[in-house]
Amino acid sequence: MKISEIMHKLAHHYILSQIQIKSDTIIDSIQIYTPQQGTYELHTLYIGQIQSEAPLKLLNLAANGDWNQAVVRCPCVSNTKSVLADQGLIAVFNTANGFLAQERQQTNQLDTILQWSLNHDYQTVLNVAAKQLNNTLMVIDQNYRVLAYSRTFPFPDPLWQRNIDQGYAELDFIHGIQKISHQTPTSSQNSYRFPCPNSTYQRLVAQLYFKQQAVGYIVMFNDQQDFTILQKQLLPQIGQIISDLLGKTAIFKDHQITVKGQVLADVLRGVNQKAIRVNAKIINYTLPKRMRFLAIKSFNPAQTVRQLRELFPQALTVFYQNRLVALLPLNLSAPEINWQQIQQKLQSQLIISEAYTDFFATPKHYQLIQRIEKLTSQLEKQQQIVFCRDYYFTLLLAQAEKSQDLTVLRDPNIQHLHQYDQQNQTALLSTLAQYIDCGGNQTKTAQKLFIHRNTLLNRLRKITALTGLNLKESQHWFQLLCGLKLQQYLKYSGG
Q1: Residues whose CB falls within 8 Å of the CB of residue 479, separated by 6 or more in sequence, listed in order
Q2: Are 143 and 279 within 8 A, CB to CB?
Q3: Do the domain assignments include residue 224?
Q4: Which CATH number do you get for residue 434?
Q5: What are the tens digits of pLDDT across the range 337-380?
Q6: pLDDT digit string (tens) for 166-223?
Q7: 309-323 b/e with 16+ CB inside 10 Å = b?
Q8: What DSSP element (H or E) covers 329?
Q9: Domain of life, per the record (predicted)?
């Protein structure tokens, strides 16, 4: 403990005057001053009178050879100028020694927790810290989600047990924290007593920081013993240890994401819907009524996030399971997004969901994207823009293949055209696929195939002659489309 800290603490009990601090020395022992002593230790605080009937003084040899000192006076309001005589010597000595002993105890407790933190996870260290503080502990993030809590003691407070069960803090705590934040300059060194109007238990709160950013709160409850000065001093330091451990886990991963991005992370993790709605309300975010979900493969994710936010300021972006994903709110009156331009701007592969209206269906769309991502990597060359809707039928085939040999489902017309092409060096099957893809538009099909329209008409007549199908019948179209999809799937899956 520094000399200035001891003087500051003693000033709460006695009147100190004529204070001179030449250098703020660390004090590790306290002795009664004797003028005949001759030699004095640098890290020792001496308490006594230099000569008889002189004022009682605090003396400490400064690092520069001078003396740190302060005169101790009577704390009586009616007689503030009277000097403490010999009878006050023992009282001051015991008080100062008590402060030093308290700091030693604090240091020992903190050392114990630090030792555990070297080889254990945050949950174990949180349990040890609760035992050292002799009270229960809880960690809450900036969105007031319950991230962790100590298991050393049971939570006797049913209100806070409910918070654990539902996974987030009640609104009274949220409003109280916001009030403290506005009224008090918070720091990593302070803890704040927090009364609860709905509970008989008090709370002590310290803010958590990770990489110099506020990331949450550590909360202690007086459910085993009332708060002590030592606990108030230890809580912020323990909070720092816990936040450092949490920073190594997925809980605090990627602090570059916005607070709104946490809403997307929450829904993907399956956080309680009520908690998400509460958090969205707190940060004044309105859940979108129509949206698309994107998975983005990028060589420079940080740059891609910046570019995406420039293109779509309302987008939610987050790194989830080592993927960059985004949720794009859609404006019904806005024109359709030009995905080709977006892809060229981002220089990334995009996998794009269908538009949907239920925000809480986002995990299902993410799972669908995962399956399609895996499927496209198996079936064909990697495309830069993948629309999920283009692979729904292929997904059904992949699912059916698990219980059925799909080769028996081959369309004989598709097989006939395939064999004809191989024997006659023609391109009837690819022409049919392009014709169906263009919706039966002959001009567009011819342009896509880089052939004359009359050449296309000749090929279509040949296809009709070989298959006997009417290409103007919707049922025949559906039959051919299914056959083409199956043919493509079997080709790339090795069937």
Answers
A1: 411, 413, 469
A2: yes
A3: yes
A4: 1.10.10.2840
A5: 889 999 999 989 999 999 999 999 999 999 999 988 887 776 66
A6: 777 766 677 777 777 666 665 556 888 877 777 788 889 998 887 777 778 899 998 8
A7: beebeebbbbbbeeb
A8: strand 323-329
A9: Bacteria
Hey, what are 410's tokens?
A: 């081959």
Please, what is the Cα angle at 207 between 204 and 208, to 5 degrees?
125
Q: Given this model, what pLDDT does residue 329 score? A: 92
Strand stretches in 252-301, DSSP E: 291-297
Helix (H, G, I), strand (E, B) or coil at 161: helix
Number of structural domains (the chain) is: 4
Residues 395 and 427 reside in one and the same domain = no
Same domain? For 128 and 246 the reply is: yes
Cα maximum dimension of the chain = 127
Q: What is the pLDDT of residues 461-481, one digit of tens each?
A: 998 888 887 777 776 777 777
H helix intervals, 296-427: 301-311, 339-346, 362-379, 392-400, 412-424
Query: Is 129 in contact with 135 (CB distance < 8 Å)?
Result: no
**How many angstroms separate the CA atoms of 137 and 155, rounded?**
9
Residue 108 burial (CB < 10 Å; 0-12/13-18/19+)?
Answer: exposed
Per-residue pLDDT band at 256 (split at 50, 70, 90) = very low
Residues 44 and 125 in one domain: no
108 domain-assigned: no
Whether residues 338 and 417 share a domain: the answer is no
- Domain encompassing residue 173: 120-252
Question: Do residue 205 and residue 95 come from a single domain?
Answer: no
Q: Residue 282 burial by CB count (10 A; 0-12/13-18/19+): exposed, middle or buried?
A: middle
**Looking at the predicted structure, is the pLDDT value of residue 255 above 50?**
no
Are 217 and 174 in contact by the 8 Å Cβ rule? The answer is: no
Task: Please calculate the CA angle 38-44-49 and round it to the nearest 5 degrees.
Answer: 60
